[in-house]
């Protein structure tokens, strides 16, 4: 393995420690090497904290080695003031002579300016190392700034005979989830929720299941809740309106008498392509990624408009014989795995 690739792979590895906590910043990894030895490492702190390059530099015990070292990083160091000072300035301050970068930052405030600042200061800058791998790692951040929308993950569970939910007549009197998968699969879903910035469901899912859409079965921050409620049918007693996390309601019109203080209400034109309209709202709120969990109509809307990136589909062993049909995908299966008695199928929208 080429030496640069070796250290960029390490950058990707440690960067994953920031998954779910850095939004809307990217989860960057940085490694500092002197005489083929790693002397410092860092990844992006939770939003508002230090960037990966700062953490890596601060971790170096002997700062005199920095002027003879190489810094590896998954994404171009920032060159502007935000919540923190520019990382490029700190690199220049410590006179790090070699900087190896995988990807140019597509953010309009960076977009090559960080690289230019380093080169103007005399740094030897190399770019494009393991670009494919780092694009996969930074897929949420890149999707948001290149496509002007969040990275979209579809998720649902279906029975062995292809139903996502039973008929309403088979529901209990009190709304509650009708589980198709095992507890192990449901815990995995909570882990996924902790990794994404937003979670989206439709009106019927809320009315039928009264979900919390949180991460109570995992560690981490609960995602922003996005609810499609065209006619504001959802009452204040539902879990998703408890104000425990940021909540956005997508509706057809604003009606202050039906609105809950502290919830963001965003009107869209339901006569236009709905998924695109929703994406515009999520982009406005700087939501870099969203996991869409239902219901079938909502999921199929994003599929039909071809506005999705990844689908994670559980298949359980139970059968309903009749009920609400699961969404349909035309894409070929890319991977699958077994989780106890469930099968998890993964699709990508290439």
UniProtKB/TrEMBL annotation:
Residues covered by the CMP/dCMP-type deaminase domain: 2-126
A molecular-function term among this protein's GO annotations: diaminohydroxyphosphoribosylaminopyrimidine deaminase activity
Cofactor details (free text): Binds 1 zinc ion.
Active-site residues per Swiss-Prot or TrEMBL entry: 53 (proton donor)
Keyword Hydrolase included in the entry's annotation: yes
UniProt binding sites for substrate: 193, 213, 216, 293
Pfam families per UniProt: dCMP_cyt_deam_1 (PF00383), RibD_C (PF01872)
GO BP of this protein: riboflavin biosynthetic process
Residues involved in NADP(+) binding: 157, 179, 205, 209
Enzymatic reactions: 2,5-diamino-6-hydroxy-4-(5-phosphoribosylamino)-pyrimidine + H2O + H(+) = 5-amino-6-(5-phospho-D-ribosylamino)uracil + NH4(+); 5-amino-6-(5-phospho-D-ribitylamino)uracil + NADP(+) = 5-amino-6-(5-phospho-D-ribosylamino)uracil + NADPH + H(+)
Assigned keywords, A-Z: Hydrolase, Metal-binding, Multifunctional enzyme, NADP, Oxidoreductase, Riboflavin biosynthesis, Zinc
KW Zinc (keyword) present: yes
Swiss-Prot/TrEMBL cofactor(s): Zn(2+)
PANTHER family the UniProt entry points to: 2,5-DIAMINO-6-RIBOSYLAMINO-4(3H)-PYRIMIDINONE 5'-PHOSPHATE REDUCTASE (PTHR38011:SF7), DIHYDROFOLATE REDUCTASE FAMILY PROTEIN (AFU_ORTHOLOGUE AFUA_8G06820) (PTHR38011)
Family as reported in the entry's similarity comment: In the C-terminal section; belongs to the HTP reductase family. In the N-terminal section; belongs to the cytidine and deoxycytidylate deaminase family.
Function text: Converts 2,5-diamino-6-(ribosylamino)-4(3h)-pyrimidinone 5'-phosphate into 5-amino-6-(ribosylamino)-2,4(1h,3h)-pyrimidinedione 5'-phosphate.
Protein name: Riboflavin biosynthesis protein RibD
């Amino acid at each position: 393995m080429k030496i640069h690739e070796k250290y960029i792979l390490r950058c990707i590895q440690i960067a994953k420690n920031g998954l779910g906590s850095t939004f809307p910043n990217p989860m960057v990894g940085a490694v500092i090497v002197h005489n083929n030895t790693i002397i410092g490492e860092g990844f992006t702190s939770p939003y508002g904290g230090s960037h990966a390059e700062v953490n890596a530099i601060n971790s170096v015990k002997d700062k005199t080695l920095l002027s003879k070292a190489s810094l590896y990083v998954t994404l171009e160091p920032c060159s502007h003031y935000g919540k923190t000072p520019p990382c490029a300035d700190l690199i220049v301050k410590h006179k790090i002579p070699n900087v190896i970068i995988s990807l140019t930052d597509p953010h309009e405030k960076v977009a090559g300016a960080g690289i230019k600042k380093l080169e103007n200061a005399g740094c030897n800058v190399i770019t494009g190392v393991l670009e494919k791998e780092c694009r996969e790692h930074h897929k949420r951040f890149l999707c948001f700034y290149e496509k002007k929308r969040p990275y979209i993950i579809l998720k649902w569970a279906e029975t062995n005979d292809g139903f996502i939910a039973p008929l309403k007549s088979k529901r209990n009197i009190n709304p509650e989830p009708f589980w198709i998968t095992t507890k192990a699969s449901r815990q995995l879903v909570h882990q996924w929720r902790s990794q994404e910035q937003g979670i989206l469901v439709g009106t019927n899912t809320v009315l039928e299941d009264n979900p919390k859409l949180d991460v109570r079965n995992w560690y981490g921050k609960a995602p922003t809740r996005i609810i499609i409620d065209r006619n504001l049918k959802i009452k204040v007693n539902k879990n998703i309106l408890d104000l425990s996390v940021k909540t956005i309601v997508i509706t057809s019109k604003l009606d202050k008498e039906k609105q809950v203080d502290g919830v963001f209400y965003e009107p869209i034109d339901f006569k236009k392509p709905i998924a695109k309209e929703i994406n515009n709202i999520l982009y406005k709120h700087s939501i870099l990624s969203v996991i869409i969990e239902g219901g079938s109509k909502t999921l199929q809307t994003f599929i039909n408009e071809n506005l999705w990136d990844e689908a994670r589909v559980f298949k359980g062993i139970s059968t309903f014989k009749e009920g609400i049909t699961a969404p349909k995908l035309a894409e070929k299966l890319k991977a699958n795995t077994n989780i106890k008695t469930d099968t998890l199928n993964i699709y990508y929208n290439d």
